[in-house]
């Protein structure tokens, strides 16, 4: 992953209201652009993307727990194969909570539903343990084609 920062600056004129003195101040800011370069990845694709998705998806600490448990089920192909009824019993939450979390994760783009009980974690956001960089690269190409990006 390559992160590019573009530094820009502006001159700002400030006036001291007490003395009437004029000051020139240069204000600089950075504009961040992220480029994904899969061949250089050795870890998950982007921790900040996961955190941003989590922020939009999770409404409580229980949701955060379910979110983490769902992602931990991803296999080497970034697929999550799950029976929601038995899984909800295993982690000690209601079926409705797990179903709601899956719906939010699909709506946010974190997961794509392949078929009943099978989901694909977005390869631009998440890389499962044991998933190779070549697999992620292939998944990203497929994901782009399917989503017309």
Q: What features would you highlight for this structure?
A:
single chain, 149 residues, alpha+beta, Arc Repressor Mutant, subunit A, 3-stranded antiparallel beta sheet, two-stranded antiparallel ribbon, elongated
Question: What features would you describe in this structure?
Answer:
The protein is an alpha+beta fold and 149 residues long. The chain has 2 domains: 34 residues, no CATH class; 105 residues, Arc Repressor Mutant, subunit A, CATH 1.10.10.10. 40% of the residues lie in helices and 27% in strands. It is built from 5 helices and 5 strands. The chain has a 3-stranded antiparallel β-sheet. A two-stranded antiparallel ribbon has the order 1-2. A hairpin with a 2-residue loop joins strand 4 and strand 5. Helix 2 crosses helix 4 and helix 3 crosses helix 4. The longest helix is centred in the last third of the chain and has 14 residues. 17% of the residues are buried.
């Amino acid at each position: 992953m390559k992160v590019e920062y573009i530094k820009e600056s502006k001159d700002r004129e400030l006036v001291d209201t007490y003395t009437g003195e004029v000051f020139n101040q240069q204000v600089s800011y950075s504009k961040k652009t992220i480029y994904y370069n899969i061949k250089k990845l050795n870890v998950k694709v982007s921790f900040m993307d996961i955190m941003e998705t989590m922020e939009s998806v999770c409404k409580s600490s229980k949701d955060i727990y379910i979110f983490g448990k769902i992602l931990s089920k991803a296999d080497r192909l970034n697929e999550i194969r799950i029976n929601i009824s038995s899984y909800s019993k295993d982690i000690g939450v209601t079926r409705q909570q797990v179903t709601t979390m899956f719906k939010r994760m699909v709506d946010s783009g974190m997961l794509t539903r392949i078929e009943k009980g099978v989901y694909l974690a977005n390869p631009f956001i998440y890389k499962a343990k044991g998933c190779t960089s070549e697999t992620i690269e292939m998944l990203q190409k497929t994901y782009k084609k399917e989503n017309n990006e």
